[in-house]
Structure formats: C-alpha cells, structure tokens
Amino acid sequence: MDGRLRVVIAEDAAIMREGLTQTLTRRGLDVVAAVADAQALRLAVEEHRPDVAIIDVRMPPSHTDEGMRAAREIHRDLPGVAVLVFSQYIETRSATELFAEQAGGVGYLLKDRVADVGEFVEAVSRVARGGTVLDPEVVRHLLGAARRADALSTLTPREREVLALIAQGHSNAAIAELLTITPGVVEKHVAAIFAKLGLAPSTGVNRRVVAALRYLGS
Question: Which residues are reported to carry the modification 4-aspartylphosphate (predicted)?
C-alpha cells in the first residue's frame, strides 16, 4: 500500500467516467475501478474495499435512483467505505435517509456546481477521511423537505385522511361521500390543509396537485 486514497467511480456516462478517472489519477488518487451501473459498483466495492466510492444518482437499468440506493447500502453495510454522491440531480428523500444513517464519511455534490478541480479533490479526500461534504443547494432542498414534513405533521387525523383521498384523485364531493360528511365540511378541511402547507391561491398553481405530491413524497 502506498498511502494513496483508493477510489471506485460509478458513473454511467462514459466521457464523465473517463474524465473523473483521469482527473483523480493526475491528482494522486488511485482509481481502482470505474463502473457504469449499480450492480457493478457493489461488486467493485466488495472486491476492492476502497476508501471512497464516487456515485452518480441515476444509473441503469431504470435511470432513477439506483446509484443513491447503492450508496445507502454501501454506507450502511461497509462503514469503512465512504460515499460521495456526485450528480446533477437532487434526490431529497434518499439523501435525507443517507445522511440520517451515519453522518461521517458521506457527501453530496452537484456536477454543474463544481467549478474547481482542486476543491473537488479536497472534498473527495475529506469524505474519505470521515468528513462530510454538502453542496449548499442540496442543503437548501433538504431543509425545504424538512419544513414540508413538519407542516404535514400539523395536520389533524381527519385532514390527513382528506389529503390521502385528494392524493388518490377524489373530488370534494367524492370525499364527502366516502367519509360520510357534508361537502361544506370537506371544503373547510381542504382549506385548512392548504393553509397549513403554505399553499396560498396562485394563478397557474394547482394546489390539490401540489398538496398531493407533498403527501406522497412524505
């Protein structure tokens, strides 16, 4: 062992993967594997036990959150391997869960906001040595998600019941029939839900849809 940080890269875009490999190698890091999907990432981490894995959020086959799920599994099952999520996407719920499980040795940076190679390499090193790195934009989204979750917690059981039915696509009239209450009572519940979630009337904004999305996202 020569003391260099050992890195596994998981990035499905070939040019980005090669670019990261060359950049880190030139800066003195040892890229022991560079793979294109989450399954190959897990195999590479198991084989090489690197100091840090740099992981994109969206990878094959579905290009949704395979990378983020793999990052959480690695962080949970192999605490000696740090993880740095490096993506152009912010997956708020998964990121919250990732940072909640163990604060150290984890980071989340956005590709289009990294302007200095030296700072990026320093961030990789910091995470590998047990530190935490968070892009301010990611922090903003995480705080927003926390505030939305707090708002949902203020709903009464009946209001949550009404919101759940809204999320299922029911109209006020249908909700009234399902809950055996009057349409006027449903309207009051809906108004209270909108107020607690901070959804003021706004042209072009469907408050029912936004409220449903927040409920489903919780």
Answer: 56
Range of the domain at 207: 154-217
Q: How far apart are CA 171 and CA 186, in angstroms?
A: 10
At 68, which CATH number? 3.40.50.2300
pTM score: 0.68
Same domain, 34 and 93: yes
Read off the pLDDT of residues 128-164 as tens digits, 9 standing for 90 and up: 999 888 888 887 776 666 666 677 888 899 998 999 9
Residue 70 contacts residue 55 (beta carbons within 8 Å): yes
Assigned domain for 90 exists: yes
pLDDT at residue 2, as a whole number? 67
The DSSP string of 126-160 is HHHTT-EEE-HHHHHHHHHHHHHHHHHHTS-HHHH
Q: Is the dihedral of CA 105, 108, 112, 114 positive or negative?
A: negative
Whether residue 90 is found in the same domain as residue 173: no
Whether residue 188 lies inside any domain: the answer is yes
What would the two tokens of residue 41 be? Answer: 């990432």
Does 171 share its domain with 119? no
DSSP 5: P
Residue at token pair 């107020």: 195
Question: CB under 8 Å to 101, separation ≥6 — which residues?
Answer: 72, 75, 76
Q: Quick check: 68 and 83 in contact, CB under 8 A?
A: no
Provide the domain count of the chain.
2
